[in-house]
Design brief:
Number of strands: 13
Shape: globular
CATH class of the largest domain: Alpha Beta
Strand order of the largest sheet: 1-3-2-6-8-7-12-13-11-9-10
Number of helices: 14
Order of helices and strands: HHHEHEHEEEHEHEEHEHEHHHEHEEH
Helix content: 25-40%
Length: 471
Amino acid sequence: MPDNDLTYASIDELSPLLRSGEISPVELTQASLERIEQLEPRLNAFLAVFTESALAQARVAEQEIREGHYRGPMHGITVALKDLIDVEGTVTTGGSIVLKDNMAKSDATVTRLLKEAGAIIIGKAALVEFAMGATGVNPHYGPSHNPWNLDRICCGSSMGSAAAVAAGLTVGALGSDTGGSIRMPAAVTGIAGLKPTYGRISRAGVLDLSWSCDHVGPMTRTVADCAHMMNALAGHDPADPASSEQPVPDFTSELARGFNGLRVGVPTDFFFDDVDPEIAAAVRAGIELMEREGASVREVSMPWVSMGRTINIGLLGAEAAAVHREVVRTRGAELSPAIRARLESAIIMPAVDYIDTQRARRVFVEQMDRAMSGLDVLITPSVPIQTPTIAECTPPAGSPDAPGGARLTEFTGVFDTTGQPSLSMNCGFTRDGMPIGMMISGRAFDELSVLRAGAAFEAAAGLVDRRPPTG
């Protein structure tokens, strides 16, 4: 298999080849490192590449597999980690120069679990400062460039993870999602990104942004690969107070079930009200495909649903201020103007406003539960606008903000408020060749239905093999 095909292969394709010895973890890791060296100057997907340690891990994996100690589908697979996830003995910057010397003393739980599954940690992916931002523009370390058009953003704070997966620099990646930063980048780079149910994956050893909205999740080129990563990552962790003790299924178990009998809801409110026409048309076409393939589709009235992102913003702001208030007090001058302004405004938020927001959240979650009664998934666009350019999202001199990405989080934030599982995947392309994201959201702890719907759509739509022009 040529190196370019090797780095674009899925976990489903690679794992049997790795297990049989037809290819080796060292060969796959070297192919990824060579592609990073080739494309990284144009993409800026990584803040750190672990060349030596990745090759060392790959040699260990090769020997284990050769000796019959195959650990499972993640064994020998390259994975990038968003740089707010600790890897022992390396710096976790959170995308901020404030943390440029923040050496991790131990692995995050997700890092440990990936290593135990035999994955190769290939590097730390770029992000916006402290994961606070929708556009993927970081004034300290620069923006990540979209592999489909280098002038466009990768969106969301997990920008580097998305760019690395979409461009074939790594097989999989981890991102985090507080207002949409797994699903937005997945949408604009044409990959699959899953925000699991809140509490399904441990956040121990991951920098906080908003503890009641933070999620860690997989970003891959196929839906099945998200399921494989979930099998390695999900489960209770005593080190995370929010970690769930819900039983953990085999997340690949329903990928082949198709659409027959799947109950699909399409909101009549908000999600299609003010959406770019090309995006709306592509998502509607995707829903029609699902119905032709056997899904039961019905419209759902949700006149209250627009409040979801408003609640998400209120929670995120107050909790981020609590996390970072000491940094603002002692090192505020080192923060980017946009992040400092957001944190300073949130610090003076009255406590009663935060309490009212939490009360509103409880009501909102109850409304969502009622609306999804009798449904397996909701289908919506992932983002309402076409992918902005980096220039449109770069603040002008003397201003903390740029208008280009102001609406990007409108839809994704709804499901950070509820904590439901939510997947973004590619459902088509704009006239100028940019991916369009469709969001599939399910009931709490029912990732199986979300992944089933995504895999069925992927098989029927036939879009997954299309590659970006970069490289």
